[in-house]
């Protein structure tokens, strides 16, 4: 800590900085700095105030930037990789046609999001993690899942899908167990299984005919419609949703409102 350097940045004298700090400490009734050996260190109260004030000033700066940008800046959206690949990218041309004035930049990422480090406007996520209560969150659609496989594997009927080798994803290890429990289905313990690191690979494996995978409806809908996959048992809610997160309120940015409205319209909301 250096009051002299702070004064240089603020174009005031060292004594002026010291005076304002002293007045603030008197007003708060606590010491914000500890002075020892010609050095200055933050107290616990000072560190707490620094963290809060830094966040407030950052929000003010971000808000001013958004106001100045208006609708001209790209809308940067962080989206889970599988959702990006299998749902968002095939439908982005439609959004572009409806909103030619909004340029969307997509970053593939999943799980907890840091708006500070990533410089994004929105994050489209599955609601399977905890997020800061300071974020603005809108539900897009509930997640519905069901077993899917290549149609040629079900020559004997739809119920056979539960007896096929199971395809697992490292990122959703409990998908099969949770589906069976949620739907009160006894486990027939089929022979053999396959595991893949990423969720989108498990869907590709199902299309290739390696067995049956648990597929979220939005992520397999196109493959089912094209006949690459079948979902003989349909889809059921699993308690999760797809959500859209923002650091600033949606009401303050028409780009965010338009993107949210478009997402919901795609799912009939």
List the defining traits of the structure above.
22% strand; elongated; 269 residues; 42% helix; D-Maltodextrin-Binding Protein, domain 2; Arc Repressor Mutant, subunit A; two-stranded antiparallel ribbon; alpha/beta; 8-stranded mixed β-sheet
Description:
- The protein has 269 residues and is of the alpha/beta class.
- It folds into 3 domains: 3-68, Arc Repressor Mutant, subunit A, CATH 1.10.10.10; 75-142 and 241-266, Periplasmic binding protein-like II (D-Maltodextrin-Binding Protein, domain 2, 3-Layer(aba) Sandwich); 144-238, D-Maltodextrin-Binding Protein, domain 2, CATH 3.40.190.
- It has 9 helices and 10 strands.
- The chain has an 8-stranded mixed β-sheet with strand order 4-3-5-10-6-9-7-8, sandwiched between helices.
- The model has no long low-confidence stretch (mean pLDDT 88).
Largest sheet: 8 strands, mixed
* Radius of gyration from the alpha-carbon trace, in angstroms: 26 Å
Beta fraction of the residues?
15-25%
Number of helices: 9
CATH topology of the largest domain: D-Maltodextrin-Binding Protein, domain 2
Elements, N to C (H/E) = HHEEHEHEHEEEHEHEHEH
Name of the CATH first level of the largest domain: Alpha Beta
Averaged pLDDT, please? Answer: 88
| Strand order in the largest sheet | 4-3-5-10-6-9-7-8
Global morphology: elongated
According to DSSP, the number of beta strands is 10
